[in-house]
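Mods, move this if it's the wrong board.
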Amino acid sequence: MSPLDTLRTAVSSLGANKLRAGLTVLGIVIGVTAVISLMSIGRGAQEAITSRIESLGTNLLFVRPGSVSQGGGVFGGQGSAATLTLDDAYALLDPTLASSVAAVAPELRTSGQIVAGRNNTFTQIVGVTPEYQFVRNFPVASGQFISGTHVARRSEVVVIGSSVAETLFGLRDPVGQTLRVNGRRFTVIGVLESQGGTAFGLFDDQVLVPITTAYYRLASQRTTQGGVSVQTINVEVRDEGAMDRAIQEIATVLRLRHRLNGEDDFTISSQQETIETLEETTETFVVFLGAIAGISLLVGGIGIMNIMLVSVTERTREIGVRKAMGAKRRDILLQFVSEATMLSLGGGGAGVLMGLAVARLIDGRTLAGQSFQTAFSGDIAVLALVVSAAIGLFFGIYPAMRAAALHPIEALRHE
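Not the wrong board. Structure tokens:
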């Protein structure tokens, strides 16, 4: 029997039971749709995270206390020892020893209760300098940012994130209003622009204060040398091509200041390392989403096997007649395998179209306060089609082999 005849026979057999074939295909359609839509959501979140970090600049370095062996690194612990100070940050601006450094923005983080009238929230409090606004790309939507005068005077002023502003003040303009941070009275001088999206909502849920105020008023923690401790020094490098040289210069300055002869008591990581680590993490998340959705494909494959086994039982006499007329074992096997493959491929094609439609439908939509971004790509569609075809072959082999193994005389006797 030629491949064309086999295909025609498969189409005819499936057309004889349209409702049953349609319900079987529906299982594959749902599975492929779930795979494509969930992986598109995952890819969209991955691209949103990467683009947001890249918008901060790829010429950023992060200096944190503690060596790699003490738990440092891109996402490791920052180290419990207070080994970095505000003076260390300013020392990195030395044009002789650190000519590759353009700007520094030290951070001192803590957390606390923020109260305004009857409203309150518990959030991150970040002590910063004026350079933080430009180095980390956090523009102000209204009011002003923290100035050098605020830092020098240890002023009790605060710049709040958009989420904090909404929680505490609702529709009112927060600028000029007062609130309490851990019981201390602060004046709101600015509101940060919303970073948007689900990936960076945490940046909207924070408040910024002068770094000296954070140290002396809110989270005093002295180093062994008695300086103002910082948890991170954000370093902007003059040129992206000078990243390696900047790392060497920063390490040299800090080693000289800390009088180190052995292991460093600080860790330097780059923005690019952060991006690569996040991409690896989010790729695992995308694959995990696809695997969960793939369970529905597996269920659809079981449905194909079930229907094909029923079909073999119903068409036992037909198989006997075909064998008696000279059909070979290979012809029977190919016929039932082609039927199973047509079911899975047909469902896969329809699932790709439906998955694309769902991805486009939810792109940019907000559900339960969360904004969804999707990113459909051809490799996702190809993967879904290949998997659906493989499932059709896998679950169609056993019924096909069972049909091909029937003895013609016994098949003709079947009622």
